[in-house]
Amino acid sequence: MNFLRHRSTRLMLPSLAIAALLALATSALPASAATARPGATKSCTIPVFFGLHGMKEGPGGGGIGGPGISTLSPELSSFDNDQNAISGAVLIYPVSYTVVYPTGESIATTLFPALSSGEDALQNDILSYSKGCSLSEDKIALVGYSMGAWVINKWITDHPTEWGLIRAVVLYGDPCRASGKDEGLARYLGSYGCMPAKDYPYPLPGGTTAVPFGMQSWSAYRDPVSGWGWGGNESAQVKAAYDCNNPKTCTHLDYTGSTAIRDGAQFVVSQLVG
Question: Using an 8 Å Cβ cutoff, are 224 and 241 in contact?
């Protein structure tokens, strides 16, 4: 499968688009045993990546349209396996936030509250994990898949004062992705929670704001959620997202075990461990 890496090197709305985002779901796998815990003295001196799951994935309670899920997203589990094989020095910290299921409810009672839940959980976990450490000691990366990538976009947009705590960011199947005419599904929802398209991913040449960490955004070709290869054909892209329920036919569900996961893991290890 082809993957496109969109990176930086410096350290209302269509109802079908809403339904398409809500219809994306995969199963989950057990969490890694090497899981970091927040609040320990000088915990941030230990390299860690904070992982944020996609829809109908865990960990997270308070499900919207279904139950919470305690097990780990398969994409995050795959990333953890690869980074452990490369180094073994980086721990995983799965961020627990609201699980979203396909539902007929309005966007105001599904996606947006879940995004806020994820952002709040990420902010609290980062501050807890970095408590008692200086910026030079922090060794934190953020890794998000699908809705988890969207949550990270929102956190970056809303929390510039905490940017210095982060060493690396890796996004997969990001609904906020923007590259020329290719746009992720969140761009069809008013770009809520997304950084400006002209700056994606921070920073682009001519962008107004630069983050102090390296950032990668990976998209599979013809992923209808992140939009690579759709060339702005909104109706076809949204329909493909709505019909996305099989990894054999929808590339958005086929990141687990991919070269993109492995290469992103290598990037995080290089930024946190060297």
Answer: yes
Q: How far is CA 32 from the centre of its chain?
A: 18
Q: Can you give the pLDDT at residue 18?
A: 41
Give the total number of structural domains in the chain.
1
CA distances from 219 to 28, 79, 167, 222, 252 (A): 20, 15, 21, 8, 8
Q: What is the pLDDT of residue 109?
A: 66
Asked, as a colleague might, if the bond just before 203 is cis with ω within 30 of 0, I would say: yes
What domain range includes position 99? 3-272
Q: Taking a C-beta distance cutoff of 8 angstroms, is the pair 13, 189 a contact?
A: yes
Q: pLDDT-derived band of residue 67, with 50, 70 and 90 as boundaries?
A: confident
**pLDDT exceeds 70 at position 35:** no
Intra-chain end-to-end CA distance of the chain, in Å:
29
What CATH number is given to the structural domain containing 189? 3.40.50.1820
